[in-house]
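REVIEWER CHECKLIST
Item 1: Sequence provided? yes
Item 2: Single chain? yes
Item 3: Sequence as submitted:
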Amino acid sequence: MTQRAPLDSALPVALERISDGFLAYDRDWRFTYLNRAAEEYFGCSRDELLGRVAWDVFPASVGSEAQGHLLRAAQGGVPVEFELLTPVKQRWVAFRTYPSPDGLAVYFRDVTEQRRAHAALDESEARFRAVYEHSGESILLTDPDGHILAANPAARRLLGRTEAEICQLGRSGLVDPADPNLAGLLAERRRVGRAQGDLVMLRGDGTRFIAEASSVIFTLASGVERTCLTFHDVTQQRRAARALRVLADLGTRVSLDEGVTLHHLTTVLVPALADLCAVDLLEGGAGRRATEARREDVCVPVPGDWQVVPGQLAATLTPIRLQVPIHGSAGALGVLSLALDGDQARRFAADDLALAQAVAAWVGLALENARLYRAALAAKRLRDEMLGVVSHDLRTPLNTIHLAAQLLARHYDGAETAMISRATERANRLVQDLLTAALIDGGKLPLDWREEALGGLIEEAVGLHRPLATARQVELCIAIEADLPVVSVDRHRMLQALGNLLSNAIKFAPEGSQVKVTARQLEGSIRIAVADAGPGIAPDSLAHIFDRFWQVSHSNDAGVGLGLAIVKGIVDAHGAAVEVTSRPGQGEGSTFTLVLPLPPRT
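Item 4: Structure as written out by the authors:
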């Protein structure tokens, strides 16, 4: 019959209700009691175990760590607590053993899931600790009132302080108290639980840097609020972005007026780079203050000692003052001076000097361009005055010579009078070409728009050039498509353009060859082509044929090279185009085509 240990009548009831397993051994290691939780753990009823020796029932336990702890408790007569992976179930179990004169009482609990949870927690904590310790981002653990509880190594390196110093200083000792962004960031964090923005922070050596910061507020399991601030130094990044903005802004404000350029300069540099700005220019061996400006809330006047001293143009940099020379291609032009209000926390740095030098280079280029533009305007005025003289004082005697030649021809019909007439006509054409080129160059070519039938206009131009073609033994052939539409053009200017193309073609056409003039409507335009059978134009010359005063190398013409430039100017003024194709050395000559666009049909 199974033996049972005598127990107080209330005790078994309590032991049956607890969740821990409970069992008792006698001094011979026989089971004397098991509660329901122990039965469930072993998977055996108590009737199967009571009175039996534990080592017989579970032989795998013999020599195990569990047996060692149980023997130590029984033999030493002291309670023993231990956890181990049981050989029976391969589960982690926590044991508490209590020896007595009658044997050993054992409480045990399966702690496998608990250990797994603790292991996962330990792994998570180790992982996040590694991130915290090795992160390149600076991290501060804080509370909402600005106390700092911990600082990771990246924060300690960036701030140049120990963790103890950082915690002692708190937020107010690390963020510039004059930074207006701090209050807004804290208010945003309180409102939505997180915020980010730029803060000006202080290092241990007193230097300031711009930090891109992000902060969150959270609540611990205990209900205590904590905050976290992560940040990194973006001073160089912000300065580089500012430099790009300054240079880009200057690039959009280029003017050929020196005063406008310098005004734009000061509006860009103040307050983006400095609180005060001045530009002094060298003129006649002395300095002249060309422009100056200050931020509205800065009352300090622009220092008078900024005036440029010839021979002493060199870059200088102090915490609140910066001067760089302005150079042009021919030497020094002046000095750009910048300053910060001495009461402000900002200070100039080496990259500010680099930016100021880049700006000074831009100023030098802009000033040179403005001065070259002024010189070009002066040259243009001089040219226009000269052309006025040519137009009036030269054409008058030319007309007199031409008239005298015509009168002389009435009484003496010789080759000499014809030569004089041709020479005066050519001189008049050259004068007219110069005047036309000047008008085109100035964008002031007047056009008398009228509706014209192109067929008749082309025939008129061809008719005017037949004598020249006959003299050079060149045949003029014309093929005009029937029913060409009427177009709006300046008749005189279009005759001039066609005449220049015909003169060119006749000049280069070999004796006995043809110059063909065609006109047809095609793809919303009218195309008028003048083709010759001359030597053609080399490919490297095609890009220059419409340049002023340019002539092909094989030309023996005494002209000044304005004919095709005038054609291009007249065509452009009409909103049309001129095209040229040429295959030199293949006997096909060159073809110039005027493309006159037709208005869209309505």
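Item 5: Key structural point noted by reviewer: DSSP finds 17 helices and 22 strands in the chain.
Item 6: Recommendation: ____
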